Amino acid sequence: MSFRLKQTGALIAAAWLALSPLGTQAATPPQPAAAALAWPRNFDAASEHVELYQPQIETWEGNQMSGRAAVAVGAKDGSPTYGVVHFTAMADIDKPSGLVQLTRLTIESVEVPTRPDAADRVRQALVSRLPANGLTVPLDQLQASYAVSRQLAKADRVAVRNDAPQILFATTPTLLVLIDGDPVWRTVPGTQYERALNSRALLLRDPGGELYLQAAGYWYRSESAGGAWEVMSNVPQALQSAASKAAAGMKPDSLLPAEGKRPSTAPAIVFATRPTELVITTGAPRMAPVSVVGLLTVSNADHAVFIDPATNQYYLLVSGRWFRAPMLTGPWQYVPGNELPADFAKIPPTDPKANVLVSVPGTLQAREATIAA
Known about the structure:
It is a single chain. 14% of the residues lie in helices and 34% in strands. By secondary structure, the protein is an alpha+beta fold. The chain folds into 3 domains: 15-156, no CATH class; 166-277, no CATH class; 285-372, no CATH class. Strands 1, 2, 3, 4, 5, 6 and 7 form a 7-stranded antiparallel beta sheet that branches. Strands 10-11-12-13-14-15 form a 6-stranded antiparallel beta sheet, covered by helices on one side. Strands 18-19-20-21-22-23 form a 6-stranded antiparallel beta sheet, with no helix packed on it.
């Protein structure tokens, strides 16, 4: 059995982890070739269930190499906690055969940031499974794994744009309809309507320039992209027919709530043609203290929104990135995680807003999230 929620390994198979079926095993002579294995590999260590993911070779100098592999630890029927295994090995290369004999396989360390008590049990279980005589693996697998590591290292040095999106706030149920730039229209065959191709929503336009939007189980109409959207009580048959034909060609996003049911009241519409994030509060924003630390949080928001009373600055977490502004209306600017106020890293794991800790550099939760990724 394995964890209820599986995580798929994306690294290249290599090194000592290409073991024979996991379990207590006797030393066996090196084989002339290594069989392909399915990942992750599963086994039990005391009361823990462990999933070991495909390893990655990080350094390779002469005949010495080292690397790491992600590991998941936890109850068999629960959600796992993630860690990382660091290993070293000696590599004797036989180029004519395309094989590498790995010896002196050593588990240097195991880290499980949020479950340090499990690290030693996992390490002992792995050590007990190392083949005494080493093992033989294909040279091309090791080379591919090492190449991936070098590419990732280069990618880490590439500058990433962190321009703040347009950040909007709403205090009532509202839908954000995004268009990638100005609408690109194409005629819906056999109708008088055109469809916007660069939106996930079903957005139609008639010959007079009026816009029609189907979202959350309702139809809306607006005189223009920048105009107000009103709910339609009667939908012309021609419009419904055009919508069906358009959906047959490219299925739109219904923009229904997570449960898939039409809300009892039609939500308002926010229409945007550039990167935008919509933050919704249930009524006016309500401030609440965060446990132990001096931060305040907007407790009724669907995003993580904080206030630092020491500076009266607002902080908003959007897709793992932090933005800061002197007021909710902005202007918002990107804030590197290592420039957050120190209190962010001190948020207790038991606080309702503790889920932001994965996006606060230096926390155990952030380290675990990095390993899981």
